[in-house]
Amino acid sequence: MAVEITAKKVQDQLRATFYPALGMLGIMVLIFIACTRFMAKTFGAGHFLAIVFYVMLALLLLFLAMLIGRIVLIEKHPALQPFGSTEKLAERINTGLHNPRYAAYSADGNSLVTLITDDFIVSGSDFVGLLELKNLKKLQATFVPEAFARERGGEEAVQKNRDRIASQAPGAVPNAQYDYIIVTNTDGKMKRFSVKHGEMEQVLNVFQSVAPHVEIDPVAHNI
Known about the structure:
The structure is a single chain. The chain is of the alpha+beta class and 223 residues long. The protein is 47% helix and 19% strand. The chain contains six helices and eight strands, in the order H-H-H-H-E-E-E-E-E-H-E-E-H-E. It has a four-stranded antiparallel beta sheet with strand order 1-2-3-4, with helices on both faces. The chain has a four-stranded mixed beta sheet with strand order 7-6-5-8, covered by helices on one side. A hairpin with a 6-residue loop joins strand 1 and strand 2.
């Protein structure tokens, strides 16, 4: 089940990261327009306070224009530099989708959740957050299958996982749909990826196969 990733999807997703700041800045501009008009009417346009508000409003409008410019010229976003363009990034993800090591989709099958290939891992909610497997150093999981824990950490790791489950609050129900892996790259940056519940063993085996240099913690990790 391959979901086509287009350059527009990547662009829209990247632009959406600016929208909260754009909304807040827009509200601030409206507030300062009202305040500036009040100051000008009350004290006169040449008054010190009115001038201060004019200057602050001008700065806000400049920041707003710069932000809109970044949204319009989204292909210039620094996060795209490693990939060249949204089109090249989309092409790379699509190539991986047609030959995945692991792929998880939303319940309706219309959205990519997580994709792992021979050389990268990417989240469907953050295309530009694609990580090269060669740059990963460590992996932790919110659930570790007992057989895997025993193989990688022995009975001590198995017991720690059992103790962790036993220590959960009475009545606590784990997420029935997803578990998570948390990967750390060589720069120490961490990123979380969703794994469908029941498929963690498959994912850990994939990492052992295509990225044996990655240290996998045999003890489950709390988010």
